[in-house]
Write a structure and sequence with these properties.
Helix content is 69%, strand content 1%. Helix 3 packs antiparallel against helix 9, helix 9 packs parallel to helix 12 and helix 13 runs parallel beside helix 15.
């Protein structure tokens, strides 16, 4: 690349970062005005659903995460580049887990979000030893349940119930399951990118996936668990080797993907991602049928258990319409939700998206799947049912969009991702 071309690229990068910062700052500024005027009453740090945290109170507790972040930026790209791909994936996963846990324990601890009375564990006494009876009456009894249960299908509660039945009860085990599953999306997405765009592209993406600013909400929102399930659902579409294993892998993918609408109603739009992946890899017809069979099996199981997904959607929408969330201004959050997406994907992703566009790379597998995730987010955003609190809702999508950060390689941009995560953890007191 010539010196002139490098200078032009640098200018584009600077413009992108400026636009990224102005969008975020503008949405926080307007949010503060709307909050001061009483338009936004349930969000104290809009567009985020949280409070401002005095940084001095966090400095000492955040120090281990700061030190780890510095070390990770310095050594992780090299470790991933030099190791065999399987080992590189495990190394990236390990860094993702440690980074996520260190961020979480710097505040109220790993399990704190799951101790809240509005979380899923609060409803477990109602489930008792009769999960099928609870499932059959879920929709009609929805108004009795905590906020998060009312806002979701029944599967998240059944997941934490199953953990308790396996001898892993309580908030800590739920948090451990969420973090381990959520961070495993790093491996699943890396494997998918390897199949779509080659091993070099996957290796470049792994450090960005491991050190994403979204880690602040991977510890510990249930949406991180959704992200892990979703990522492996996509990855299993491309992992089969040979006719039989491809079909069975696709069936397993279908089961995981079929579970998504029963984990969160908003994850229906996520299904665009596996469709795009299936097209890109030219998934054999038998594998497509296997994936569809897996999806149908999950749906049939819930119908047999007495839960109607359309009825659940209607009941949840009625609860949402009657609550304070529906009074949030649509136009503000239409833009502010995207500012939050910018925050949790980080500045490297913004630069990477622009570089991918300038290089006309969206026909390439990794960029194409990121574009599909972005379209899925935009569909949810425009629908108006995601007004605020998207810092957790966007996590399953943000990890795929974050793949494009690899188009802006270099420790400087990786360091910017880490700094963004540290600032979010240090300055924002989030209920999750």
């Amino acid at each position: 690349m010539s010196i002139a071309a490098i200078g032009k690229a640098d200018r584009w990068e600077q413009v992108t970062l400026l636009a990224w910062g102005l969008l975020i700052a503008g949405c926080f500024g307007l949010g503060a005005v709307l909050h001061g005027l009483g338009v936004l009453t349930i969000d104290h740090l809009p567009p985020l659903h949280g409070h401002f945290r005095v940084p001095s109170a966090m400095l000492l507790h955040l120090l281990p995460a700061v030190i780890f972040g510095i070390v990770a930026v310095w050594v992780l790209p090299g470790l991933v580049a030099r190791s065999g791909f399987g080992r590189a994936s495990l190394v990236a996963y390990g860094f993702a887990v440690v980074w996520t846990v260190l961020l979480a324990v710097s505040a109220d601890g790993l399990a704190a979000p799951f101790t809240h009375r509005e979380e899923y564990l609060a409803v477990l006494p109602t489930v008792g030893q009769h999960p099928l009876s609870w499932l059959a009456t879920f929709t009609e009894r929805l108004p009795e349940y905590p906020t998060h249960v009312r806002g979701h299908p029944p599967l998240p509660v059944l997941v934490v119930w199953a953990l308790a039945e396996m001898g892993l009860p309580g908030p800590l085990w739920a948090a451990v399951a969420v973090v381990l599953t959520g961070c495993s999306a790093t491996v699943a997405i890396g494997l998918t990118v390897r199949r779509l765009a080659g091993e070099d592209a996957a290796r470049r993406a792994l450090p960005y996936l491991a050190l994403t600013p979204a880690s602040v909400w991977i510890a510990t929102t249930m949406d991180a668990f959704f992200a892990g399930v979703a990522a492996w659902g996509v990855a299993l579409l491309v992992l089969g080797r040979g006719r039989a294993s491809t079909v069975w892998s696709a069936v397993a993918a279908g089961v995981l993907l079929g579970a998504l609408p029963y984990l969160s109603y908003g994850l229906v739009s996520f299904l665009l991602i596996p469709v795009v992946v299936a097209v890109l890899v030219r998934l054999p017809r038998a594998a497509v049928l296997g994936a569809v069979a897996g999806i149908v099996a999950v749906t049939a199981a819930f119908v047999a258990g007495g839960f109607s997904w359309p009825a659940g959607v209607a009941a949840t929408h009625a609860e949402w319409a009657a609550g304070a969330g529906s009074t949030r201004p649509y136009l503000y959050f239409l833009i502010a939700n995207l500012a939050v997406l910018c925050l949790i994907t980080g500045p490297a992703t913004a630069v990477g998206l622009v570089r991918a566009a300038r290089e006309r790379a969206f026909g390439r597998g990794d960029a194409a799947v990121a574009a599909a995730a972005l379209v899925a987010v935009l569909a949810l955003d425009v629908s108006g049912v995601t007004r605020g609190e998207v810092e957790r809702i966007w996590v399953p999508f943000a990890l795929w969009i974050g793949v494009t950060a690899a188009f802006a390689p270099g420790r400087r941009m990786l360091a910017a991702q880490v700094v963004t995560g540290l600032l979010l953890q240090g300055l924002v007191a989030s209920p999750w």
